[in-house]
Design a protein that fits this description.
By secondary structure, the chain is of the alpha/beta class. It contains ten helices and ten strands. It has one domain: Rossmann fold, CATH 3.40.50. The chain has a four-stranded mixed beta sheet. It is globular, with a radius of gyration of 27 Å. The mean pLDDT is about 85.
Length: about 300
């Protein structure tokens, strides 16, 4: 009849098969094509960097508005939360949980305040090799609102005196293992600076101190570009130059490295680099362990 068509069932089955076979072949081909384009353009790599950078920037903005730029608060959140008993720090076979590092940081901070009258925003110079004590002094200073200046432990003589002078610190804590670098010449150049060799007796004194959590007002920092740490250039073209590492640089850097490097909570992140080195990667080796999404363990060699 005009206008009517009849299709046999066998023909319908053939049409279905003809439609599905090309699709089954097209999907892998499309995926292979996308993979090829990605390899040529690096699109997924760029997206990873961009996403991590946006996360770090957003985190910084939120912390600035809440006046929580100081990373002490992140350590505190972990120490009092679900991460409390998770391993945070590993050094020479010893391990410390987030809670233990937090408690130790409070001890060191209280000790620095009571023994040396360290004030909020004050810069205290640190001349230490890599160790657990380096971490404890660093976080202890942040706990009381003070700021560390990381001195290169290889420096001696005029270069060492110059870096201490640039920091404006009135107190420098020196690792017991490099005490010989603090010569009389260096001390004579800085008569207003107190040089304190951090020997086992002082370590025991700090650890026996009852840690007190200072009120939030001592850690206030209203701008993300405010100084968090003072570091130095290598000094290859002259004397080392001081450089400000802001809270923003630390937080954005810490937001970029872990997702880009695919670091997870199950990973142990070891550093063999001197902790005072001025690269953002070295700084984030400890800071990324404090960022909520990652919380991996930090190993120091």
């Amino acid at each position: 009849m005009l206008g009517q068509y009849y299709v046999r069932p066998q023909t319908i089955a053939q049409l279905i098969i003809m439609a599905t076979v090309p699709l089954a072949l097209a999907a892998p081909a499309a995926l292979a094509g996308l993979a090829y384009l990605d390899a040529r353009t690096g699109f997924s790599y760029d997206c990873s960097w961009l996403g991590a950078g946006l996360y770090g920037q957003a985190l910084t903005t939120i912390k600035e508005k809440r006046d929580r730029l100081n990373l002490f608060y992140q350590l505190e959140d972990h120490a009092l939360g679900k991460q409390a008993n998770h391993i945070f720090l590993i050094f020479e076979g010893r391990q410390w949980t987030y809670k233990e590092v937090y408690q130790t940081a409070l001890k060191y901070g209280t000790w620095l305040k009571t023994r040396y009258n360290v004030k909020p925003k004050e810069i205290v110079a640190m001349d230490f090799v890599n160790s657990d004590i380096f971490i404890f002094v660093w976080l202890g200073l942040w706990a009381i609102g003070a700021k560390p200046a990381f001195i290169n432990y290889n420096l001696t003589g005029k270069a060492l005196a110059h870096c201490i002078r640039v920091s404006t610190a009135r107190l420098i804590l020196v690792d017991f293992d490099i005490r010989d670098k603090i010569t009389q010449e260096v001390q004579d150049e800085l008569p207003n600076v107190q040089f304190q060799i951090f020997d086992p007796q002082l370590e025991a004194e700090a650890m026996s101190t009852k840690g007190v959590r200072e009120p939030d007002k001592v850690r206030t920092d209203d701008k993300a570009h405010n100084l968090a740490i003072l570091i130095y250039t290598s000094g290859t073209t002259g004397l080392p130059k001081g450089a400000i590492v802001s809270w923003k640089k630390i937080l954005v850097g810490a937001g970029i490295i872990p997702p880009w490097a695919h670091i997870t909570k199950q990973d142990v992140f070891y550093t063999v680099s001197p902790l005072q080195i001025s690269t953002i990667t070295c700084l984030t080796e400890i800071v990324h362990a404090l960022i909520p999404l990652f919380c991996c363990r930090l190993g120091v060699l």
